[in-house]
Amino acid sequence: MKKLIAIISVLAAGFVGTAKADITMSAGQSLEIQSSGDVTNVSIGGSLGFAFSQDLGNGVTVSMSGLTFDNDVAVVDNIVGTADTTGTVSTLGASTTANIIVPLHANVAGTDLNNTGTANVVTAVGTFAGGTATASNKGIDGDAFEQISFASANGTLTYGSDIEVDYADTGVGDVTGSDLTAVGLASSDSAINLGGTLGNGISYTTSVGGTALKIGYLMASGVGNDLFDSSAAANNSTVAISTSVPVGPLSASIGYTSASAAGDDTNSIGVSTSMSVGSGTLSASYVSVDTTNDSTEMGFAYTAAMGSATLSIGYQQADTDGQDNTNMTSARISQPVGTGASVFAEMINLSGGTGTATAGETSSIVLGSAFTF
Fold first, then answer.
1. Number of domains composing the chain
2. Strands (E), 86-126
3. Distance CA 165, CA 202 (A)
4. Largest pairwise CA distance in the chain
């Protein structure tokens, strides 16, 4: 890693004269296997990210990161995109000639159709079964490098797109770390929803004495465009604040989020605390959401060291008005097997109100390995 950073810095210096910014890269690779009911899923993926920082020489350090390639179990080839064109040609008349867009090679599962072409097709009386093109104009993290942070002795100011202000979601109880664990599971009848907590905005973090303070504001939630009308009547703005304070042997956090929307505002408050118990840490939380259908969530988690391994166990219960309670139990154990390498196992089990909207399994087990570079 250090050699790579040095090489990049030297190359940058050659192009611009002097390399002022510190450039860091991170990468990882994972192999995960999930067992849920009679289904076995395998996920193989990796990640690559870049970050830049620079000292302005006046006590302020500017940093930004982006262009991240991540393993996403919900996206084919891990890159989201839309189709170039779709459509079919059918019920053509006698000796009809039509121009249609067709793939230039077979649509093989897992293969991107990166090329399409126009074919002159002559048909007889009857129907021509046209094809549908798949995604080829795919993009990679359209919001890359669109957040910038200014850190000083007084705190850190960040502005840009994809600012997240879900400060009221202090909930604990879900100790899983893999996206694969929840694949194929039943939907939860009860769950908290804080409203719009991601979008274009600003956040500021600082500390006063031993108290940490964080403030966030979204001018437009759910919007990642570079250009937007900040005075538009339809904007869904969000304001949030959180604080963390030591209380004797405890560490307590309180978060509040207020998200406005055309249909109904959502006001949420969350409280969590943690303390050392034995060789581990016990955490508890409670979240209350006031909206059209009010929700509450409470959770508990315990994390402890077992030799060089780390074991975590969690429990969470959600209650939404008019719905059955949903209970979730989860556990994870991780064992390092060398520098930057580890193996892990985790499980999740749902009970109570599950599957009303989408049927599915209620339990899952994942085994995996992870490498960081």
1. 2
2. 96-103, 116-123
3. 9
4. 86
Residue type, 198: L
Amino acid at 39: V
Residues 92 and 215 in one domain: no
Q: Coil, strand, or helix at residue 11?
A: helix
How many Cα neighbours within 13 Å face the side chain of 103? 16
Q: Tell me if 241 is assigned to some domain.
A: yes
- Give the C-alpha separation, 167 to 69, whole Å: 26
Both 298 and 189 in one domain: the answer is yes
Alpha helix segments (H runs only) across the chain: 2-16
Please write the tens of the pLDDT for every residue from 52-97: 999 999 999 999 877 666 666 666 555 554 444 444 444 444 444 4
Angle at 11 between CA 9 and CA 15, to 5 degrees: 115
Which SS3 state, helix, strand or coil, does residue 180 take?
A: helix
Q: How far is CA 283 from CA 53, 170, 190, 272, 347, in A?
A: 34, 11, 22, 7, 19
Q: Please provide the DSSP assignment of 255-305 as one string.
A: EEEEE--SS--EEEEEEEEEEEETTEEEEEEEEEEESSS-EEEEEEEEEEE
pLDDT band at 251 (very low <50, low <70, confident <90, very high): confident
Residue 80 resides in a domain: no
Q: State whether 125 and 43 are in the same domain.
A: no
